[in-house]
Design brief:
heterodimer, A: mainly alpha, MetI-like fold, about 70% helix, B: globular
Chain lengths: ~290, ~325
């Protein structure tokens, strides 16, 4: 009767202890979670950890190699690289999470509507996704970010326009497959309105899969934020951001390669952490 | 539209094969029309007055009005739209560049060869690398090499493509001095030589997805009955791999490339910036900093229409090779 994926809320009635013990048995989830937690804690407590100011320049100490005072050295304006790196995590991770909220909700909702009602609604939504998919992702990101003005606003508008497609595709497919199953048919015979079936019965069952996709999608979003920063149409300086840090370091690639290499590694670190969490969550929900 | 999507989803029999082909073409035409509409409206939905962006924040109202007239922005929206579609389909153009004065079509045509060459090289490299690594992983299933190759996509997923380019420049141009740091060399061999590193960069961003699916497919083929029979017949594993497994992987690879072609083009535009290549990407960025709207619209349109046509061609080729797939991976 019940579909393969399980409503995570189902576990909360009396089984909450077992969910914790199950998380312990999935190393990918644990490792990814710890990696993320370390970075988030660092980002929260960085003012107490580092004595340096992320935007304070010290031209007498520019381009220094890593040392005890400056753990990762200093950049061309004498700013402490480690401090900037962690402050940039604050900016980039906050934007990454905030920019995903609206696309995630609209995508899941549109996907369920398309998959449940089918027919012309489905055709219209599929046509919309086909149209947006035809544009190379970075092309549309660059153009919209430019047209709506550099900075955070541009990033949010861009992802509201293009971010929902992935989620719509996934939930549409899942919902369409649920429609063939008995439990949806029995809800329909009971005379429940479509919107209620979608929100109360289909939503809990597509959510796990959508969240797994969300993890990978956030990696792509972070890379896009960083790319916009690198191209000079993302987060405006002097706010620290990994992308602008990489482009600032580029002229010094022969003498101080770590200026560009380290911020990129930070992105890779977040990417690995989120992939691990995604894989782990998929495992968790597959095993029940 | 409703009938259309139903027809494409239904498992058509052999007789309706040609109706599949016609439907695929009709769908592509509709998507192209939507793409044109989207490009036209995106510039208008997004906040900001194009005339003000071109002239700057402190332009006089008269100058703004003249610019509105020059861009045709003083006309009703539907009339603007008809003009836009008309010039696009009669001249294949989106209007003259505000800065250069020449037509967008000419500007793009001038820059396109380098970009297309780069995309082509990247495709070939991505396929070769992905096929090799997937074959190694599939034949060594659950051994060390397989695990290493399976970790590869997880690690590379979060790598910004421009950062990979920078690291490659650092390693192969600065330290090993095998390749130039940027720009384009003289003549055919020089061009190919200087495009090698950028092509590797673009290919690098494509291989993770390719490897992931090809590995699974190859394992399926390797464990299928006919391969087991071939093995039992005493045919060497090497020949089975190259003659049968790779042949079976060709179609899925082609279809995966079709799905990813849009990402590949976008990545190419960014990589061009890192290596200082004067292609479509650099035209896009100069147009953006000059606020040259017709050219920006033109690039977006040509790229998107290109993606739709390439995807359609790949769907058709896959369908010709194996009608059961209906052009979908």
């Amino acid at each position: 009767m019940k579909p393969i994926t399980v409503n995570p809320q189902l576990h909360e009635d009396g089984q909450s202890t077992s969910i914790i013990s199950r998380i312990w048995r999935i190393p990918a989830l644990l490792a990814g979670g710890i990696m993320l937690a370390v970075l988030v804690l660092l980002a929260i407590f960085i003012p107490f950890i580092s004595p340096h100011d992320p935007t304070g320049q010290d031209l007498s100490a520019f381009l220094q190699p890593p040392s005890a005072k400056h753990w990762l050295g200093t950049d061309q304006l004498g700013r402490d690289l480690f401090t900037r790196l962690i402050y940039a995590a604050r900016t980039d991770l906050t934007i990454m999470v905030l920019a995903e909220i609206i696309p995630f909700c609209t995508g899941v909702l549109l996907g369920m509507i398309a998959g449940y009602y089918g027919k012309w609604l489905d055709s219209v939504i599929s046509l919309l996704t086909d149209t947006f998919i035809a544009f190379p992702f970075y092309l549309i990101v660059i153009i919209v970010a430019f047209a709506s003005g550099a900075g955070q606003r541009g990033i949010y508008i861009t992802f509201m326009l293009v971010g929902w497609i992935v989620f719509a595709r996934v939930t549409r497919g899942l919902t369409a497959s649920f429609r063939q199953q008995e439990w949806v048919a029995s809800a329909q015979t009971l005379g429940l309105p479509g919107i209620r079936i979608i929100l109360r019965h289909i939503l809990p069952n597509v959510l796990p899969q959508a969240i797994v996709v969300l993890m990978t999608d956030m990696v792509g979003l972070l890379v896009a934020i960083v790319t916009l920063g690198y191209l000079g149409i993302g987060i405006a300086p002097p706010t620290p951001d990994w992308g602008t840090m990489i482009s600032d370091g580029q002229p010094f690639i022969t003498t101080a390669w770590w200026l560009s290499a380290v911020p990129g590694l930070a992105v890779v670190y977040v990417g690995i952490a989120l992939s691990l969490v995604g894989d782990g969550l998929a495992d968790l929900w597959r095993k029940k | 539209m409703m009938k259309l999507s139903k027809a494409t989803m239904k498992p058509a029999g052999t007789k309706s094969s040609y109706s599949w082909l016609i439907m695929a073409i009709v769908r592509a035409v509709i998507v192209i029309f939507c793409v044109v509409t989207a490009v036209f409206f995106i510039i208008r939905i997004v906040p900001g007055d194009p005339a003000k962006m071109i002239l700057g924040e402190y332009s006089t109202p008269e100058a703004l009005e003249r610019m509105h007239h020059a861009l045709g922005l003083d006309l009703p929206v539907w009339e603007q739209f008809i003009r836009f579609v008309k010039t696009l389909f009669t001249q294949g153009d989106t209007g003259n560049s505000i800065i250069a004065g020449t037509s967008t079509r000419e500007l793009v045509a001038e820059r396109a060869p380098v970009t297309l060459l780069l995309i082509g090289m990247a495709c070939v490299l991505a396929v070769v690398i992905a096929l090799l690594l997937a074959a190694v992983a599939a034949t060594q299933k659950d051994k060390l090499l397989d695990h290493l190759i399976r970790i590869f996509p997880t690690v590379t997923l979060g790598m910004p493509i421009f950062w990979v380019g920078l690291l490659l420049i650092l390693a192969f141009s600065v330290h090993l001095r095998w390749f130039p740091v940027g720009g384009i060399g003289e003549g055919w061999s020089g061009t190919l030589y200087s495009l090698t590193l950028p092509a590797i960069t673009v290919a690098f961003s494509q291989t993770p997805t390719l490897i992931r699916s090809l590995r699974v497919q190859m394992i399926e083929v390797l464990e299928s009955d006919f391969v087991v029979t071939l093995k039992a017949a005493g045919i060497p594993g090497r020949i089975i791999l190259f003659k049968h497994v790779l042949r079976n992987a060709a179609l899925p690879t082609l279809m995966l490339l079709g799905v990813n072609i849009s990402y590949l083009i976008g990545g190419t535009l960014v990589v061009e910036q890192v290596f200082g290549i004067k292609g479509i990407g650099s035209l896009l960025f100069t147009s953006i900093s000059n606020r040259d709207f017709p050219v920006i619209q033109g690039i977006a349109l040509y790229c998107a229409i290109g993606v739709v046509i390439i995807s359609l061609l790949i769907e058709i080729i896959s369908w010709l090779l194996d009608p059961r797939t209906k052009g979908k991976p």
